[in-house]
Specification:
By secondary structure, the protein is mostly beta strands. The chain contains 4 helices and 44 strands. The protein has a 24-stranded antiparallel β-barrel. Strands 2, 4, 7, 8, 9, 12, 13 and 14 form an 8-stranded mixed sheet that branches.
Length: 781
């Protein structure tokens, strides 16, 4: 502690617990600012840096003094801002591995929340583990994503960081006899910041201590407040910052070859290598333009298999493609009206992102490949605009506009939204907009709207939300999980905290009441489609253990729209043309009672595990009848040494008819991921995922017992839904060399195999495979 204070005698000491949160940062230009980023804080510059100390506990209980001392040194030069961290810990308590980028969740870590615009709404996040391995991204408040179990209690606290963006910065760290040290250098070329001569940037720093299951922050942030970022401190007096010429050139080359059986032998169809490139230009310190020609948007990892609890809800897969990730936080909208994965195979794209006059600006234009056109002849054009203007107290107002033009057809969406914070624990979010879709000369307009009123608070909170999406509302540039409904939630929460050192650190219980109506039929006075009462409980225990218990009571009405292609085969008849079929009217209501148990172990130095288990009585969507269900996910993460990580996961979804106990549907997805970090920039990965699905012949189980027929939309003919099964095994291997974002060598092989019986492995046969190679190099001028 004394040595740390000696380091900062020239610039001062700033204790978060004493609310010394406004830091005049010393500027050191060469030769005084000469620092080698090696994880050793031995340069003269660190003795002149400002010292940030006096951390407070933030999770699981806020407000207490941090149990572990953390000292952060900070200074800047004309082109770079530097952070040095001295993290104290008990001998042997530090968790650190040589991991791949963004995979340090099991390690101790430091996170720097930095916002040059100091708007209290969003921040860039620069995270490092004790070896300096990086995990970076963006935190945007107002998304409502706070993590936790699917059916966990309503939580307060900081929202989740989106780790998909990658930024160019330097970091190195090392273990010491008192804990660990880390050096971080963030060049101003990486950042956007105001054009003013003298600036004040928002800053907070969080430290995760895995051995105790704790998280500390420099400012004494309170979990019960609506905004974490508005509780930041500031770095003051930053002046004459030189971003210089910001011009990044990123040429790349890709090649692939796909294999499949042909004429009794295996053949590969090798395509010609493709060349392309990205360019990033800093138009001004606060505006950046990106462009790409013939971009490579291939992914180096297939999307993991997911279950859905309700087949009427579409599955969401996050954006992973590099061009879209730079400035992605500025395209954020309520209800995902902007979802760049809709741009499936762009031939060229350009975007402008940044901030001017207190307004976040994000503009994107892209031309998609002909294969994505409805006719196969046009190149669909996307135009996307997102503006968000700052209001006092970390509030904002914004608009979003998107259009997709596919020859004579088009879809346009316009919406306005606002997020208003008041009283430190209250916030109101509203959105209203509509779409206009033109197909074959016919135009249809439809609305979308939403209102959310949220009270945070340390011991008591609530959230009231209503969302309406007309069945004709269409967002061709966005992601709507389920349309045609009005969805209303009322949730109340209570939280109790244990004493320091007590086994029970916090217990949160919440009650959620949910009602769903079909949008068009509400005006006709028709009753609800779904109603639910969920009683959720979450506990956090000393050492990092977390557990949850929930009871779910629900009632679902028959959804005629979802089953519009269902019919019944008449007794003694068949589904052949001309034969009699009967309407499928379905049981009017199905009542559910389900129970949920979750358990998460701490992040032990070599091991962690989690369990998610649901059982009870639920609707069988295959046949619209009551079923006994089991949904389960088991995961184990094993780190036998500092370089090897083995993750196993098993997902199960099972439906058994309550009438006779027979299985109507079951799906099993075991997944194994093995990663080996050869060195900091090089790693090897092998993923094996098996997807086994079985479905019985469908019948009207809750009413007549007659066979169910399903209409083919293409032909209009009905056919029985016979028993079926599909068993596939996918293997993905990857060699990755990535010294910095943008400079990469990816070489991989993928193979898809199938077999007639599930999880036998002995009869697997290859159905297709492929090799791919990507090489890119970042040239930063």
């Amino acid at each position: 502690m004394i040595a740390a204070f000696v380091f900062a005698l020239a610039a001062g000491v700033f204790s978060g617990r004493e609310n010394q949160l406004h830091v005049p940062v010393p500027r050191l230009d060469p030769p005084a600012a000469m620092v080698t980023v090696d994880g050793v804080l031995d340069e003269e510059a660190w003795r002149q840096a400002a010292l940030l100390t006096g951390f407070s506990q933030y999770s699981p209980v806020d407000g207490r003094p941090a149990a572990n001392q953390t000292d952060v040194l900070v200074f800047y030069s004309a082109t770079t801002i530097y952070f040095g961290v001295k993290a104290h810990a008990a001998p042997g308590a530090v968790h650190a591995t040589l991991a791949n980028r963004d995979r340090i969740d099991a390690d101790d870590s430091i996170q720097i929340f930095l916002n040059p615009f100091n708007d209290g709404r969003q921040a860039l996040v620069f995270g490092v583990n004790p070896y300096g391995i990086q995990a970076d991204g963006a935190l945007v408040e107002g998304t409502g994503r706070r993590g936790g179990a699917v059916f966990g209690a309503l939580e307060s606290g900081r929202e989740e960081t989106d780790l998909t963006p990658d930024y160019v910065f330097q970091s190195r760290g090392r273990l010491t006899d008192y804990g660990y040290e880390v050096e971080i250098a963030i060049p101003f070329k990486t950042l956007r910041f105001p054009a003013g001569r003298t600036q004040s940037w928002a800053l907070n720093i969080a430290r995760r201590v895995q051995s105790d299951g704790l998280e500390d922050t420099w400012t004494p942030a309170q979990r019960g407040k609506s905004s974490f970022l508005s509780q930041s401190g500031t770095l003051d007096g930053l002046s004459d910052l030189r971003r210089g010429l910001v011009l990044d050139l990123n040429p790349f080359a890709t090649a692939k070859t796909d294999g499949a059986p042909s004429g009794g032998e295996w053949r590969y169809d090798a395509s010609r290598p493709e060349l392309g490139g990205n360019v990033r230009w800093g138009v001004t310190p606060n505006l950046t333009m990106n462009g790409t020609i013939n971009p490579d948007f291939s992914q180096v990892e297939a999307d993991a298999g997911q279950f859905t609890f309700d087949p009427r809800n579409a599955l969401f897969f996050p954006e992973k493609r590099p061009f879209f990730l730079d400035g992605a936080e500025l395209f954020n909208t309520p209800n995902n009206l902007i979802y760049t994965r809709r741009i499936a195979a762009p031939e060229a794209a350009v975007k402008l992102t940044g901030k001017a006059a207190g307004t976040d600006i994000a503009v994107l234009s892209a031309m998609d490949d002909r294969s994505t056109s409805l006719s196969g002849l046009e190149r669909p054009l996307f135009s996307i605009l997102r503006l968000q203007h700052d209001l006092p107290r970390s509030s904002k107002v914004g608009v979003a506009y998107t259009d997709r033009i596919d020859g004579p057809d088009a879809n346009r969406v316009f919406a306005a939204d606002a997020r208003l914070l008041f009283g430190s624990i209250y916030n109101l979010q509203v959105q209203a907009g509509g779409s206009r879709t033109v197909t074959s000369g016919k135009a249809i307009t439809a609305p979308i709207w939403q209102a959310i009123f949220n009270r945070d608070g340390r011991h008591f909170g609530y959230r009231y939300q209503t969302t309406g999406i007309h069945e004709d509302f269409h967002a061709a540039s966005g992601f709507i999980s389920r349309g045609g409904i009005i969805n209303t939630n009322v949730t109340h929460r209570a939280t109790w905290f244990g004493a320091a050192g007590a086994p029970l650190q916090s217990w949160t219980t919440s009650v959620l009441l949910n009602g769903v109506w079909q949008y068009r039929r509400v005006a006709l006075g028709e009753r609800w489609l779904e109603k639910k009462a969920h009683f959720n409980n979450s506990v956090k225990l000393a050492g990092g253990w977390q557990a949850g218990v929930s009871a779910l009571f629900e009632s679902f009405a028959f959804d005629e729209t979802f089953y519009r292609d269902y019919a019944l085969q008449a007794p003694g008849g068949s589904a052949a043309p001309g034969q009699q079929i009967l309407p499928f009217t379905g049981t009017p209501h199905i009542h559910n009672d389900d129970y949920v148990v979750t358990l998460d172990t701490p992040q032990f130095s070599r091991f962690s595990a989690s369990i998610f288990y649901i059982w009870g009585h639920d609707e069988n969507f295959f046949e619209w009848s009551p079923a006994s269900i089991v949904f389960a996910t088991y995961a184990v993460d094993w780190r036998p040494n500092g370089k090897l990580r083995i993750n196993t996961q098993y997902q199960l979804q099972s439906y058994e008819r309550r009438s006779d106990g027979s299985t109507v549907g079951v799906r099993k997805i075991p997944r194994l991921t093995v990663e080996y970090q050869v060195s900091r920039p090089i790693f090897l990965r092998v993923i094996g995922e098996y997807d086994s699905r079985e479905q019985d012949t469908l019948r009207d189980d809750s009413r007549t017992g007659l066979p169910i027929l399903i209409r083919d939309p293409a032909t209009g003919l009905y056919a029985p839904s016979m028993a079926s099964e599909r068993h596939r095994f996918r293997v993905d291997t990857l060699f990755s060399y990535q010294p910095t974002p943008g400079t990469v060598v990816f070489a991989g092989y993928s193979s898809l195999l199938a077999e007639p019986e599930g999880l036998r492995f002995g009869s697997l046969r290859r159905t297709n495979d492929g090799f791919f190679l990507k090489v890119s190099y970042l040239i930063r001028l």
